[in-house]
Structures are given as structure tokens and as C-alpha cells.
Amino acid sequence: MNLNIQHSFKALADPTRRQILVHLSQQEMTIAEITDQFDMTRAAIKKHLNILESGSLISVKTNGRERINSLETEGLRTITDWLSYFDQFWDKKLSLLQTAITNNENDINKES
Amino acid sequence: MNLNIQHSFKALADPTRRQILVHLSQQEMTIAEITDQFDMTRAAIKKHLNILESGSLISVKTNGRERINSLETEGLRTITDWLSYFDQFWDKKLSLLQTAITNNENDINKES
DNA sequence: AAGTAAATTAACTATGAATCTAAATATACA
DNA sequence: TGTATATTTAGATTCATAGTTAATTTACTT
After folding, report:
1. Closest residue (CA to C1') to nucleotide D9 in the complex
2. Which of B46, B47, B91, B100 could in theory staple to A104 by disulfide, Cβ–Cβ 3.0 to 4.6 A?
3. Are B47 and B35 within 8 A, CB to CB?
4. Straight-line distance from CA B82 to C1' C26, in Å?
5. What is the mean pLDDT of residues A25-52?
């Protein structure tokens, strides 16, 4: 179920799930802590977390009886990779920016 | 209905709609031409086009009895803007890249 | 004006998604 | 061992989505 572009896009298509990601970007959280931030049952949040996990947008580690959810960038990378195909169709100004990025990427590669 | 982030994310959540965007990136097309590329009725494609339009991912211009659909980058920009918030959580290498982008953005703004 | 071609809309069906309540698991600790 | 805490799962409900066929509008063509 790893790195499925469809799962990643589906996961981002719900506003609650996008908000969860924003919260997790601030700090990793248990499902109880996440649920506190929403007007929704824990069971509902759990389903959202499952969907986020299947989109490689979060990862979960077990600590005793708690499960700690944290942001996982792999899914975000999948999405931006897909989107990057369209960069060539953006406006001139952005095209310039993209060229600059590409050049800088080369520089960075040389450094490492 | 303009520039609704939710509509843009929803629109990208369907694989057929993402494929339509890829086709439109090659050339603008009528609904008939798009339909030829898929194993699906024109009515179904029309619904997808409506959803893409409401996500500002395509725009439509009328030419006689034809409607020409073409890629509209505004929705893509909305998505990448949202995603860019998470750039700070990616790995070091990418962080460096982001800094480079920001610097170049400033340069470009100075120029214009 | 009549006929044809392109596109849209309407009405329906089947499946999936988001939510709830309630029950079941699993771990911690007194 | 028993109870409290954290999480997960099951089942039901409601609404949304993706698709179909059939009917309707709009604009060319002869």
C-alpha cells in the first residue's frame, strides 16, 4: 500500500485531513490529542488517520498504549512530484523561477 | 466559486481528472476529443470537466458550437501554495533548495 | 426550413465516504 | 486480578461521487 499516488491525492481531498496535517506539522500527537482539536468523534478521526497513513502522509509509532502520529513527507513528495510536471505550463515569471530552482538543485548536488 | 482550495483538491482526487489535465497540457481539446481518450461516455467526461473547472484547473472558451477546454494553472497554484507550507518539514537538502527559491523570488520581484 | 453534429442537462443507479453509537482490544497500574 | 485509560473495530446511516441512458439545447450545413 506504499507510495500510491491515488491514495495520497484522495487523502488530501478532505479538509479535516488537511487540517490534521497542519496540526501534526506543529507537533506529533496521539489520536486523543488530535480529536480534541475537532468537533468529531475519535472513531471518525481514526478513519481519517487510516486514510492519511495509506497515503503516506503520516506515520505512527507505538508507545505503550499510546500511538503517536507524526507527519510523513513521502506522500507530500509524491504529490509535488506529480504537480511538478505542470511547472512548464505556468507563466513566464514562474518559468524563470523554475529555471533558478533547477540551477540551484545542480549546485546542491555538486556540494553533496 | 473562484479559487476554492477545497474544489481544487477534490478535483485532483480522481485519476480520470488527473489524466484529463495531462492530455490538456499537450493541447487544448473539445469534450469530444477528450472523450476519445477514455472508455467512458461524454456525459461522464462532462461531469469531470465541470469539477475541474470549479477547481480552476481548466478554463473553457466557446467557439461556435464547440467548447475548447484548456489547462488553467490557477488551481494548480492554489494546491502548490498550500503544499509549500510543508516545505519546511522536508529534509535538509530540500530546505536549502527552498531557501534558494525564496532568494530567487526576491530577485525576480526586484526586476519587475 | 430541415437535418445533423456538438454539447449540455436530467433522471437514475450503484458504490464509496464521512460520520455516529456502541462494543471490543490492549496496555498500565493499584 | 481487577479497573481505568487509550485506541481500534463493527455496524448503521446519510450524503456524495462516478457512471449510465435518454432527452434537450445550440449552432452549423445544405
Report:
1. A43
2. B100
3. no
4. 38
5. 98
Pair B30, B58: CB distance under 8 Å: no
As given in the structure block, the three cell numbers for residue A6 are 491515488
Average pLDDT (B87-106) is: 61
Q: Which residues pair with residue B58 across a beta bridge?
A: B71
pLDDT at B90: 76
The per-residue DSSP string of B35-70 comes to HHTSSS-HHHHHHHHHHHHHTTSEEEEEETTEEEEE
pLDDT tens readout for residues A48-89: 999 999 999 999 999 999 999 999 999 999 999 999 999 988
In CATH, what number does B5-75 get? Answer: 1.10.10.10
- DSSP character for A87? G
Helix axes B42-54, B15-26, angle to 10 degrees: 80
Given 1.10.10.10, 3.40.50.300, 3.40.50.880, 3.40.630.100, which CATH number is that of A5-76?
1.10.10.10
CB-based contact (8 Å) between A21 and chain B?
yes
Nearest to A7 by CA among B39, B12, B79: B12
pLDDT tens digits, A92-111: 455 555 555 555 545 444 43
Q: Where are the domains of chain B?
A: 5-75, 86-111
Cα angle B21, B27, B31; round to 5: 65
